[in-house]
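Researcher: Can you fold this with fe (iii) ion in place?
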Amino acid sequence: TFIHSDRDEASKLDVFEEGAIGVNSEGVIEFVERDAKDVDGVVDKHPSFKDAEVVRTESGRRQFFFPGFIDTHIHAPQYPNAGVFGSSTLLDWLNKYTFPREASLSSLSVARTIYSRCVARTLSHGTTTAAYYATIHVPATNLLADICSAAGQRAFVGRVCMDHKDINPDYYRDESADESITNTCLCIDHIKKIDPNYELVSPIITPRFAPSCTTEALQKLGKLVKETGLPCQTHISENRNEIQLVKKLFPEYGSYAEVYDAFGLLTPKMILGHAIHLSKKEMELIRSRDAKVSHCPVSNSALTSGGAKVRWLMNGGITVGLGTDVSGGYSPSILEAVRATTLVSRHVALSDGDECKLSVEESLYLATRGGAKVVGLENKIGGFEVGMEWDAQLIGLELVETTGDEFSEGDAEGEVVDKVVFEGPKSAGPVDVFGWETWDDKVAKWVYNGDDRNTLGVWVKGRKVWSRE
Ligand code: GUN
Ligand code: FE
């Protein structure tokens, strides 16, 4: 069984229950058979697949393949901090938790531990592509690229630029704009060496956010974006105090978005994290430049940043994907971000109207096809079509479908309590708690009740990179 988002209609899941997909040795999908009850018939039609390895979903409508998740905004060095943010908001959170943590990756052995755990964990949650912020450190950033490459995760790896002396702490910043550029280029060169065509791992130019960069650095980074044609990522309009800070630091520009635009950073390859408090004019500017937005609802809730108006952005014509924003976000799971997307949209709906509610299907679209567009890979990943690459996860619903039997009398260790019997006025008789659902219902149960235990296997570019066994 294969389930993916419809290419054109974000609110629709396309399900083919007894299909077959042929993936060649390059990881590229060669055929998609929507009705393939017997494998022999499929092989007759595609003889070059005669000796292919066959991976089957279990019969009984409890397993399905789904496209791998795309995390369009995650800070790998912050992974150990996931869940630790107290009652802080963005600017004090950066100083209290984030900068000290990131500074610790000046040690390559610290970086190795953190980055290998982060990549393994995101893979286990079905994240087949991630746009990573690393730190200012060149050796550690290069190591993150090496680890992604070895683990087989598709990744954009960004060496973070932050040279402003008044905003960044002395113990963790670039000494100059030139240092931002030189060190960014060293990381680009490293990835060029390990993955010359950026097939799996690509560099991404990463000014942390406008306040952390001097005018000179932003100017030079804009030039580098133009010269290299590389993607770029940063933060925008996440927090009200941050917006005030941008006003103070860049008084000559009309808005936060105009600061990035002035330096040539608003391009179709720009990924803007958060975009919560944009004015209509900023939204239209971002749209006119075709810059993309990474929606990070878990982080935006945790740090009290606000609820991004995703429907408004989408109606405005902006391309949106999802990000975990670890560790502003407390979870490395995009499934959790999908769940938070639907919930935050409901809070937004309370003030802005019911049409703001995002469905499970739409949120899954953002996590796959939307994310693919955000990272510029919509023709390669995010769905199952001929010519695309096999980035997928095998989902099993067994753990969502706990019957409760395993908690019945006698199973628990220690004292056995009397079995509780609920005696209602009328018995409803036997009830099918599971197995009655449509596929859309099953997917909704996965989204709202599932976690990484449901992710049984993960493939990137046809290679199996994670298995639950
Ligand atoms: N703005 C600048 N740096 C950061 C960061 O590390 N995380 C988040 N969420 N916002 C930021
Ligand atoms: Fe972030």
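Model: Folded with fe (iii) ion in place. Residues 69-374 form a domain with the TIM Barrel fold (CATH 3.20.20.140).
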